[in-house]
Amino acid sequence: MRNWYVVSSHPNKEKFAAKNLQDQGLEVFLPTRRKAVRQRRGFRTIIAPLFPGYIFVSFEMDVGTIRSINGTRGAKHLISNGTMPSSLPTGFVESLISGLDEQGNVSQRPNLAPGNVVEIASGPFANQLGELLDMDDRGRVSVLMKMLSTQIPVKTTISNLLPA
Fold it and tell me: What pairing do the DSSP bridges indicate for beta strands 140-147 and 42-49?
């Protein structure tokens, strides 16, 4: 297993910084997810960073590489503990990589049970919290949403839920 480190990027410059780090010959991982965004005429699904403002990079530790990463366009700096970059726990990035779906995004099929608080990922109730009521074997779920002092059951799919 190799060590992975975290690079902080400038706002909305994760892809730009990741490309510049890859151009330096570094191994880079920028985890992404599908995200619903509200537009004037409804919702649109986009691909967004799983951890906005952060990129994972693996490299052999030396002062020249650290300076090169800190000076990369789009990147702010390596996350450090004092003067040395802090490595992520062993297996963290590998577990994210192993959970990628067919499109290369982090899978959003959580292990949930009735009673869990969940967030709806897309659709008219995007980014709203609710309580998971029940689910069937075909991936359909009911979520109890609190709206205007009342509770409303909403039907959706398990792939449209995130643990809250």
Answer: unpaired
